[in-house]
C-alpha cells in the first residue's frame, strides 16, 4: 500500500508539472500573439523575479501585469509603472521619472516632495529663480518683468532698478538717478529733461531752482562774472543785446545786430551791412546789395546793375556784361562781345577767344557770315576802297599767280587766275571794251586787290586811263574820257 501510494504521488507531481509547463507555454504564446492587439495583460508567475514586457508595454508593479499605459496615479520609471519616482528624480509633464529635466521642460516646480519639470512656470509661481519656479523673488534679488526672471543684479540690457524691478528705462512718472528710478531727485541734484537727476546742468542750459532748462519761460538767460547762467527779466547794461534767449555784449560770429537783437539774416527792410555787422535800411553808396548783404564786389556768377548784384542783366536796358557790370554798350577797353549760354549771355571782352576768332558787328564768331568779306579777323560788309577782293577776303594786293581783273566788283578790283584771251601786262588784265560795273558777285577763284593807280601806268604799257584802270587802248565812244 505504501509503495503504491508513492508511485501515485510521483505521477501526480509529474502531471502537475506538465500542466504548469503547458500553462506557461500557453501564456507565453498569448503574450507573443498579443503584439498585434490593443492591450494584453499577463499575470506573472510567483517565481518570476525579472519579468520582461514587450517593448511597447509597461510593467505595472501593483498588479504585476504588462500594460500599454500606466494609470494616471502612477509614474513611469524605466518602462515600469510605479507609485513614486526614485529619490532625487524629476517628473516630466508626461509623468516620466528622469534624472534631469529635458530642454523642452527646463523649469522646476516643487510641489510637496515632487520636483516637476515644466516648459514654463505656472501662474501661481510665475517667476524664475534660475530654473526654479517661485511665487516671488527673494529680498536680495531684482525681477526682470520681460521674462519673469529673478537676478542678484540687474542685467546689462535692463540696468535700472525700480524698487525690486529691473528696467531698461524708468517709467514716465519716475526720474532716473544713476541706476535707480525715484519719485524725485535728491536735494543735492537737479532734474534734467524731466527724466534724469544730475549734479550740475549742462553748459547750454540754465538753473531754474532744482530744474535744468533750455528756456527761461519768458525770461532771458545771462551769465555774469563766470557764474552759472540764470534767468532774468531784462538784459543788464553790460550785456544789452539779446541773442535768442541769452544776453550778450556783442553778437556772435555769423549774426548781425538789429534793434538790440542778434539775427542770422537781416530783414528785408534793413539789408545787412558787412562792415559793422549791423542791419541798415540801405547799403552805403560804395557798396552793392547782394541778397541781404552789402558787398564791395559782387559774388561769382553775378553782375552789378543799379547797385545790386543780379544773376543776369536786363535785356531791355543793359543787356551786356562789361567788367562785371551790366551795360548798354561795351567800353573801349572791352569792345568785342562773346555770346554764350541759354538764355544768351553777352559779355564784353578785350579780344575774342581763339575758338571765336572773327569779329562781325562787334560780335566774336567762329567764322565770318557767307555774305561778308574777311579782312584779318574782321568780317566786313564791303572791302576798303584801297583793297582788292580775293574770294571773300580783302587784301592789299593780289596773291602771286593772280591778276587784277579789268572789271570792278562792289567798287573794288577782283583777283583772277587768268585774263581773257591772255590779255595781261603781267599783273593786270587789259580791257578791250568798256568795263561794265558788276552788281552781283563775279565768280572768282581768289580775292581782289587794289586797282592799279594811274601813276603806276607807263606809256609803253597803256594807251589810256579810265576809271583808274590802265587800258591798252581807247575804245569807241570813250575818247573824251581817255587820257594818256
Automatic annotation (TrEMBL):
User: Keywords for this entry?
Assistant: Signal
- Region Disordered: what ranges? 434-454
What the entry lists under InterPro entries is as follows: Growth_fac_rcpt_cys_sf
Where is the signal peptide, in residue numbers?
1-22
Record-given protein name: Uncharacterized protein
- Organism, scientific name: Galdieria partita
